[in-house]
Amino acid sequence: MLRPRPLPPERRRRGDIVAAAVLVVVLFAAAALYWLHSAAANTESVTDPAMSGAAAPPAPAAVPDGFVEAWRAPSAATPVPVVAGPGVVTGDGSAVVGRDAETGRQRWSYTRDLPLCTVGEGFGRALALYQNGQYCSELTALDAATGARGPQRNSDVRPGTRLLTNGTLVAATGTDYLEVWRSDLVKTLEYGEIRAPEQPGQQPRTGCTYGSFAMTTGRLGVIERCPGDSTDRLTVLKPDGAGDSSKPQEEFSVLLPAAGAQLIALSADRAVVALPEPARLQILDRSGTQVGLIPSDVPATDLAAAPPGGVARVSADARRVYWWTGSRTVALDRADLVPLWTLAGTLGPGTSYAGQLLLPVRGGLLQVDPTRGTVVRTIPVDRSGWTGPVALATQGSVLLEQRGPELVALTPRP
Questions:
Q1: Do the strands 125-132 and 135-143 form a parallel or antiparallel pair, or are they unpaired?
Q2: What is the pLDDT of residue 246?
Q3: CA–CA gap between residue 170 and residue 376 (Å, rounded)
Q4: Which residue of 76, 118, 288, 319 pairs with 254 in a disulfide if CB–CB is 3.0 to 4.6 A?
């Protein structure tokens, strides 16, 4: 019995085969185009897995008689030396580099096809913030020892931002907006002019600009200049994200006695603000009530200049905060923020080294007794003509100097 011959399936038609082939080519082309324009395709990450678990070099036992330059590297994206993990991190152009502190040798690198906004340290990692369009919108956390990529997030902060940390949180500053993140880079607070608020009306004030910031455990302070206010305003926020991140929780917000104020530091229950004309330091408690108003010899020209990125140039040890005004270093008690002593003619806030304080001055370093503020001696340092501000940090026995767009490492003279 003859059976009817089956018809060829539609998929075998020549036109269908050609169409399918064209579709495959288009899909592959789209995938290739997407890859070429994706962040992954335009990122180069060179890691050093062998450094996993490496320890930082030991602290020095004494201040040496002299220092010699060990290495230097361009690092325009680091406003202060970035010490993270066992080494030092530099940032310049589009590249973040983890280096050996003593030799400057590159251990790892992370490079994008975007310009860096800033590089900082937080949660024991290096934090690289890149500019994409008008915003510093792409943040990546990098393992400080190996350079391996960790959490990433998008942000809405503007160029000129600084990264502040209190050990458990990191804040990104801005002239009209700030963000705070926890260690997994989940946002715990946004404050100011939010680009696209999900729930309008959550912010306590609108149209304000921000002058300066400070952060400590459980507290974030900002100087605000708001429409309708005759003077500056100090607002202290709770950055921990206990509630909705877009609905800030205020500890207090009070008007200050003057405009042109700078927030210098916060402690567990105090805030200290520098006020101009005449120069004085105002100390406020946790309710925003003034508990001290102390005359200051800080020149008016120092207070007239806003701190870069809105962050006062300070360093700290276990007992004191050191504030560089622009012409002198003022030591404050870390608990009650009362001024203790002042040294004029300095180039930065200094850093602790073997139990002493090292302060940069023209031509060298002052070794200072941090308790009394007395100068023990001057240690010569040749800065090759650099006379601008100098931010110091240490990694083991290595002394790091941020001189404008360059990082210079000094080691004890043999």
A1: antiparallel
A2: 79
A3: 36
A4: 288
